[in-house]
Design a protein that fits this description.
Layout: E1 3-6, E2 9-16, E3 21-25, H1 36-41, E4 47-51, H2 67-81, E5 86-91, H3 95-104, E6 109-115, H4 124-138, H5 142-153, H6 157-169, H7 172-184, H8 188-191, E7 198-203, H9 210-219, E8 224-228, H10 235-238, H11 240-255
Parallel strand pairs: 3-4, 3-5, 5-6, 6-7, 7-8
Antiparallel strand pairs: 1-2, 2-4
Helix pairs in contact: 2-3, 4-7, 5-6
Length: 260
Protein backbone atom coordinates (compact mmCIF):
# COMPACT_ATOMS: atom_id res chain seq x y z
CA UNK A 1 0.00 0.00 0.00
CA UNK A 2 1.31 3.49 -0.79
CA UNK A 3 2.23 5.81 2.08
CA UNK A 4 3.66 9.28 2.46
CA UNK A 5 5.17 10.90 5.53
CA UNK A 6 3.83 13.99 7.29
CA UNK A 7 5.15 15.14 10.66
CA UNK A 8 6.97 11.77 10.98
CA UNK A 9 3.67 9.85 10.52
CA UNK A 10 2.99 7.31 7.79
CA UNK A 11 -0.28 8.16 6.06
CA UNK A 12 -2.01 5.99 3.49
CA UNK A 13 -3.01 7.53 0.16
CA UNK A 14 -4.52 6.57 -3.19
CA UNK A 15 -3.53 7.95 -6.59
CA UNK A 16 -5.56 6.99 -9.66
CA UNK A 17 -5.96 8.35 -13.17
CA UNK A 18 -4.12 10.91 -15.24
CA UNK A 19 -4.74 14.59 -15.87
CA UNK A 20 -5.16 17.67 -13.67
CA UNK A 21 -4.91 16.64 -9.99
CA UNK A 22 -8.01 16.67 -7.81
CA UNK A 23 -7.49 15.99 -4.09
CA UNK A 24 -10.56 14.46 -2.41
CA UNK A 25 -11.26 14.95 1.31
CA UNK A 26 -13.75 12.54 2.97
CA UNK A 27 -15.44 13.01 6.35
CA UNK A 28 -13.80 11.31 9.37
CA UNK A 29 -13.94 7.49 9.56
CA UNK A 30 -14.79 6.93 5.88
CA UNK A 31 -11.39 6.90 4.19
CA UNK A 32 -11.71 6.81 0.41
CA UNK A 33 -15.00 4.86 0.56
CA UNK A 34 -17.41 7.68 -0.40
CA UNK A 35 -15.29 8.44 -3.48
CA UNK A 36 -15.32 4.93 -4.95
CA UNK A 37 -17.87 5.98 -7.63
CA UNK A 38 -15.60 8.87 -8.62
CA UNK A 39 -12.52 6.65 -8.73
CA UNK A 40 -14.42 4.29 -11.02
CA UNK A 41 -15.79 6.93 -13.40
CA UNK A 42 -13.26 9.77 -13.54
CA UNK A 43 -9.72 8.37 -13.89
CA UNK A 44 -9.55 9.27 -17.58
CA UNK A 45 -8.77 12.96 -17.74
CA UNK A 46 -8.47 13.60 -13.99
CA UNK A 47 -5.82 12.46 -11.51
CA UNK A 48 -7.76 11.58 -8.36
CA UNK A 49 -5.91 11.75 -5.05
CA UNK A 50 -7.18 10.98 -1.58
CA UNK A 51 -5.70 9.87 1.74
CA UNK A 52 -6.74 8.54 5.11
CA UNK A 53 -6.44 11.34 7.70
CA UNK A 54 -4.34 10.70 10.79
CA UNK A 55 -5.69 7.81 12.82
CA UNK A 56 -8.23 6.93 10.13
CA UNK A 57 -8.09 3.62 8.30
CA UNK A 58 -4.49 2.65 7.55
CA UNK A 59 -2.89 5.93 8.68
CA UNK A 60 -0.89 6.38 11.87
CA UNK A 61 -1.93 8.70 14.69
CA UNK A 62 0.04 11.01 16.96
CA UNK A 63 -2.92 11.91 19.16
CA UNK A 64 -3.03 15.47 17.80
CA UNK A 65 -5.63 15.34 15.04
CA UNK A 66 -7.12 18.72 14.09
CA UNK A 67 -8.59 20.34 11.00
CA UNK A 68 -5.35 22.31 10.62
CA UNK A 69 -3.16 19.18 10.79
CA UNK A 70 -5.45 17.55 8.20
CA UNK A 71 -4.79 20.46 5.82
CA UNK A 72 -1.05 20.34 6.56
CA UNK A 73 -1.01 16.63 5.76
CA UNK A 74 -2.68 17.38 2.41
CA UNK A 75 0.12 19.82 1.61
CA UNK A 76 2.64 17.12 2.56
CA UNK A 77 0.97 14.67 0.15
CA UNK A 78 1.22 17.18 -2.69
CA UNK A 79 4.90 17.69 -1.81
CA UNK A 80 5.44 13.93 -1.81
CA UNK A 81 3.93 13.65 -5.30
CA UNK A 82 5.71 16.74 -6.64
CA UNK A 83 2.44 18.59 -7.26
CA UNK A 84 2.56 22.35 -6.82
CA UNK A 85 -1.18 23.05 -7.17
CA UNK A 86 -4.36 20.96 -7.17
CA UNK A 87 -8.11 21.29 -7.23
CA UNK A 88 -9.61 20.41 -3.85
CA UNK A 89 -12.90 18.63 -3.20
CA UNK A 90 -14.25 18.27 0.33
CA UNK A 91 -17.35 16.28 1.21
CA UNK A 92 -19.31 17.08 4.41
CA UNK A 93 -16.78 17.63 7.23
CA UNK A 94 -14.07 16.94 4.67
CA UNK A 95 -14.81 20.46 3.48
CA UNK A 96 -13.28 21.94 6.65
CA UNK A 97 -9.66 21.03 5.80
CA UNK A 98 -10.29 22.10 2.20
CA UNK A 99 -11.26 25.58 3.36
CA UNK A 100 -8.38 25.68 5.84
CA UNK A 101 -5.98 24.64 3.09
CA UNK A 102 -7.26 27.35 0.74
CA UNK A 103 -6.87 29.98 3.47
CA UNK A 104 -3.35 28.96 4.55
CA UNK A 105 -1.96 27.63 1.25
CA UNK A 106 -3.73 29.92 -1.24
CA UNK A 107 -1.15 29.53 -4.02
CA UNK A 108 -1.64 25.73 -4.00
CA UNK A 109 -5.45 25.68 -4.32
CA UNK A 110 -6.47 25.69 -8.00
CA UNK A 111 -10.17 25.67 -7.12
CA UNK A 112 -12.52 24.46 -4.38
CA UNK A 113 -15.38 22.02 -4.86
CA UNK A 114 -17.39 22.06 -1.64
CA UNK A 115 -19.81 19.13 -1.50
CA UNK A 116 -22.65 19.76 0.98
CA UNK A 117 -20.19 21.08 3.54
CA UNK A 118 -20.16 24.03 5.95
CA UNK A 119 -17.87 26.91 6.99
CA UNK A 120 -18.62 26.31 10.67
CA UNK A 121 -21.07 24.31 12.80
CA UNK A 122 -23.85 26.73 13.70
CA UNK A 123 -27.07 24.73 13.31
CA UNK A 124 -28.64 22.48 15.94
CA UNK A 125 -29.05 19.59 13.50
CA UNK A 126 -25.41 19.50 12.49
CA UNK A 127 -24.24 19.96 16.06
CA UNK A 128 -26.34 16.98 17.16
CA UNK A 129 -25.08 14.75 14.32
CA UNK A 130 -21.45 15.51 15.10
CA UNK A 131 -22.14 15.10 18.81
CA UNK A 132 -23.50 11.61 18.13
CA UNK A 133 -20.29 10.73 16.29
CA UNK A 134 -18.27 12.02 19.23
CA UNK A 135 -20.33 9.92 21.64
CA UNK A 136 -19.98 6.70 19.62
CA UNK A 137 -16.23 7.09 19.23
CA UNK A 138 -15.77 8.06 22.88
CA UNK A 139 -17.39 4.73 23.78
CA UNK A 140 -15.17 2.92 21.23
CA UNK A 141 -18.21 2.00 19.14
CA UNK A 142 -16.60 2.64 15.77
CA UNK A 143 -18.10 -0.59 14.42
CA UNK A 144 -21.61 0.72 15.04
CA UNK A 145 -20.61 4.08 13.54
CA UNK A 146 -19.17 2.36 10.48
CA UNK A 147 -22.27 0.25 9.88
CA UNK A 148 -24.54 3.27 10.22
CA UNK A 149 -22.41 5.29 7.81
CA UNK A 150 -22.16 2.39 5.37
CA UNK A 151 -25.94 1.90 5.27
CA UNK A 152 -26.70 5.58 4.75
CA UNK A 153 -24.08 6.05 2.06
CA UNK A 154 -24.84 3.32 -0.41
CA UNK A 155 -26.92 0.32 -1.36
CA UNK A 156 -23.80 -1.19 -2.94
CA UNK A 157 -22.44 -3.96 -0.74
CA UNK A 158 -18.82 -3.26 -1.68
CA UNK A 159 -19.05 0.39 -0.62
CA UNK A 160 -20.86 -0.52 2.61
CA UNK A 161 -18.18 -3.08 3.49
CA UNK A 162 -15.44 -0.60 2.62
CA UNK A 163 -16.96 1.97 4.98
CA UNK A 164 -17.33 -0.60 7.78
CA UNK A 165 -13.80 -1.85 7.34
CA UNK A 166 -12.26 1.63 7.30
CA UNK A 167 -14.16 2.69 10.43
CA UNK A 168 -13.25 -0.48 12.33
CA UNK A 169 -9.60 -0.10 11.30
CA UNK A 170 -9.55 3.48 12.59
CA UNK A 171 -8.47 4.73 16.00
CA UNK A 172 -11.63 5.71 17.88
CA UNK A 173 -9.98 8.55 19.74
CA UNK A 174 -8.48 9.98 16.55
CA UNK A 175 -11.92 10.08 14.92
CA UNK A 176 -13.38 11.69 18.03
CA UNK A 177 -10.67 14.35 17.98
CA UNK A 178 -11.44 15.17 14.35
CA UNK A 179 -15.17 15.38 15.07
CA UNK A 180 -14.48 17.70 18.01
CA UNK A 181 -12.05 19.84 16.03
CA UNK A 182 -14.53 20.08 13.17
CA UNK A 183 -17.33 21.07 15.53
CA UNK A 184 -15.25 23.97 16.84
CA UNK A 185 -13.58 24.98 13.58
CA UNK A 186 -14.69 28.12 11.75
CA UNK A 187 -13.48 29.27 8.35
CA UNK A 188 -15.91 32.22 8.28
CA UNK A 189 -13.53 34.92 9.57
CA UNK A 190 -11.06 34.32 6.71
CA UNK A 191 -13.12 32.86 3.86
CA UNK A 192 -13.41 36.25 2.20
CA UNK A 193 -9.66 36.07 1.54
CA UNK A 194 -10.05 33.02 -0.72
CA UNK A 195 -9.42 34.04 -4.33
CA UNK A 196 -9.51 30.60 -5.93
CA UNK A 197 -12.71 29.68 -7.79
CA UNK A 198 -15.26 28.15 -5.41
CA UNK A 199 -18.13 25.82 -6.29
CA UNK A 200 -20.71 24.86 -3.67
CA UNK A 201 -22.59 21.69 -4.64
CA UNK A 202 -25.57 20.62 -2.56
CA UNK A 203 -28.70 18.50 -2.69
CA UNK A 204 -32.13 20.08 -2.87
CA UNK A 205 -33.35 17.98 0.06
CA UNK A 206 -30.24 18.15 2.25
CA UNK A 207 -31.21 19.60 5.67
CA UNK A 208 -27.55 19.84 6.66
CA UNK A 209 -26.29 21.87 3.70
CA UNK A 210 -29.26 24.11 2.92
CA UNK A 211 -28.79 26.53 5.85
CA UNK A 212 -25.23 27.21 4.71
CA UNK A 213 -25.96 28.28 1.14
CA UNK A 214 -26.68 31.88 2.11
CA UNK A 215 -23.75 31.95 4.53
CA UNK A 216 -21.37 31.09 1.70
CA UNK A 217 -23.03 33.61 -0.60
CA UNK A 218 -22.41 36.32 1.99
CA UNK A 219 -18.68 35.65 2.47
CA UNK A 220 -17.62 34.39 -1.00
CA UNK A 221 -19.38 36.60 -3.58
CA UNK A 222 -17.56 34.95 -6.48
CA UNK A 223 -18.69 31.43 -5.52
CA UNK A 224 -20.92 29.48 -7.87
CA UNK A 225 -23.75 27.32 -6.54
CA UNK A 226 -24.92 24.06 -8.07
CA UNK A 227 -28.03 22.33 -6.75
CA UNK A 228 -28.69 18.67 -7.46
CA UNK A 229 -32.45 18.50 -7.81
CA UNK A 230 -33.10 15.13 -6.17
CA UNK A 231 -30.04 15.06 -3.93
CA UNK A 232 -29.82 14.59 -0.19
CA UNK A 233 -26.55 14.68 1.80
CA UNK A 234 -24.62 11.64 0.57
CA UNK A 235 -23.98 13.11 -2.88
CA UNK A 236 -20.75 11.28 -3.91
CA UNK A 237 -22.44 7.87 -3.55
CA UNK A 238 -26.18 8.52 -3.78
CA UNK A 239 -25.99 11.02 -6.66
CA UNK A 240 -22.72 9.86 -8.17
CA UNK A 241 -23.61 10.29 -11.85
CA UNK A 242 -24.58 13.94 -11.33
CA UNK A 243 -21.57 14.60 -9.10
CA UNK A 244 -19.20 12.96 -11.58
CA UNK A 245 -20.57 15.07 -14.42
CA UNK A 246 -20.21 18.26 -12.35
CA UNK A 247 -16.66 17.42 -11.28
CA UNK A 248 -15.62 16.58 -14.83
CA UNK A 249 -17.06 19.84 -16.13
CA UNK A 250 -15.47 22.01 -13.42
CA UNK A 251 -12.01 20.45 -13.66
CA UNK A 252 -12.10 20.78 -17.46
CA UNK A 253 -13.16 24.43 -17.23
CA UNK A 254 -10.57 25.33 -14.59
CA UNK A 255 -7.78 23.52 -16.43
CA UNK A 256 -8.51 25.33 -19.70
CA UNK A 257 -6.35 28.38 -20.52
CA UNK A 258 -8.00 31.61 -19.31
CA UNK A 259 -7.68 34.96 -21.00
CA UNK A 260 -6.00 37.63 -18.88
Amino acid sequence: MPYFTSNSLKLYYEDTGTGPPLLLFPPPALGSSPFIPQQEALPTGIRLLTFHPRGNGYSETDGKETIASWADDAAALLDHLGIEQAALCGYSMGGAPVQDFAIRYPERAACLLLLCTFPEVNTKLLEKKIGLGELLTEKQWTGILGRALGTTHSARTDIEKNVWGTAEQSDSEAIRRLYTSGRHYSALPKLSSVRAPVYYIYGRWDPIALPYVNQYKAVIPHARFIRISEGFHQLPTRASSQVNSIIRSIVKEEDAPHAD
